[in-house]
Amino acid sequence: MDTEITLVVDGVEHRLTVDTRTTVLDALRERLGITGPKKGCDHGQCGACTLLLDGRRVNSCLMLAVAFDGADLRTADGLGNGQLHPVQRAFIEHDAFQCGYCTPGQVVSAVGMVQEMHDGEPSAVTPESADLSDEVRERMSGNLCRCGAYANVVPAIVEVVR
Ligand code: FES
């Protein structure tokens, strides 16, 4: 069944008709040509498709587009309002990528994670004795990098958290 919805992506309103079974990731990539969010696993395991939904991190491959009708979505392209976001600058300064496929999801997730930490949201499993790098590793564990660039990703995010 088709239905008409509005997706607000990086501050731009898009009106479109979608099959009710369409994920928001497919609606963005295939219907709107918004390719910042990547399709890695399509099963909620890699984080390449991460978006901010009203500032909270979500895996867009797991969510139906109809559930996002009218919601404020943010991709890596809209984080800094036309400028690089501090997290994006830190990724560049730390050379925190290799092939770059996971980077939009990593950056979006890191922005959401920094906000969660500032809001005082506790980590589910990080012991209190853990250092900041361990905390970042745990909180970013939903974002995988097949190249294994974690050695630079983690310090980039730690720098922003500090
Ligand atoms: Fe969504 Fe991997 S593509 S978590």
UniProtKB/TrEMBL annotation:
Domain 2Fe-2S ferredoxin-type: 3-79
Pfam families: Fer2, Fer2_2
One function term, GO molecular function aspect: metal ion binding
Pathway assignment: Alkaloid degradation; nicotine degradation
Keywords for this protein: 2Fe-2S, Iron, Iron-sulfur, Metal-binding, Oxidoreductase
PROSITE patterns xrefs: 2FE2S_FER_1, 2FE2S_FER_2
Classification via InterPro entries: 2Fe-2S-bd (IPR002888), 2Fe-2S-bd_dom_sf (IPR036884), 2Fe-2S_ferredoxin-like_sf (IPR036010), 2Fe-2S_ferredoxin-type (IPR001041), 2Fe2S_fd_BS (IPR006058), Aldehyde_Oxdr_Iron-Sulfur (IPR052914), Beta-grasp_dom_sf (IPR012675)
Keyword Oxidoreductase: yes
Record protein name field: Xanthine dehydrogenase YagT iron-sulfur-binding subunit
Native species: Saccharopolyspora hordei
